[in-house]
Design a protein that fits this description.
By secondary structure, this protein is an all-beta fold. It is built from no helices and eleven strands. Helices cover 0% and strands 50% of the residues. Strands 2, 4, 5, 6, 9, 10 and 11 form a seven-stranded mixed sheet that branches. Strands 1-3-8-7 form a four-stranded antiparallel sheet, with no helix packed on it.
């Protein structure tokens, strides 16, 4: 049974940093393309960052230069380091896994999802 469990969310202030973690079980992170999405109140879920192909990491324009996706395949973990947080980063953040190397921005491409972790940035 595949499980993705996010952690690390919380309440921070503008300009702070936060690191989200995603623990994967039932699938090897080395064999899947992992990604992060987020959903703000009243908005649709949107792409944040992912491991892609042939480019190794890809980011939404809104987080480029501030967020970094990384992974530790030995621990089956994926991370999202978020720096210089803004109020508009407030959302529930989801970890997701897909087999396809392409279409990393599309939610439809992802096979498995976590339950999400809340990030609130207070100005």
């Amino acid at each position: 049974q595949v499980q993705l469990v996010e952690s690390g969310g919380g309440l921070v202030q503008t300009g702070d940093s936060l690191k989200l973690s995603c623990a994967a079980s039932g699938l090897p992170t080395s064999g899947y393309f992992m990604g992060w999405f987020r959903q703000a109140p009243g908005k649709e879920r949107e792409f944040v960052a992912a491991f892609g192909w042939p480019v190794s990491t890809v980011y939404a324009d809104s987080v480029k230069g501030r967020f970094t996706i990384s992974r530790d395949n030995a621990k089956n973990m994926v991370y999202l380091q978020m720096n210089s947080l803004k109020s508009e980063d407030t959302a529930v953040y989801y970890c997701a896994a897909r087999r396809s190397p392409s279409n990393y921005r599309s939610q439809m491409t992802y096979d498995y999802w976590g339950q999400g972790t809340q990030v609130t940035v207070s100005s």
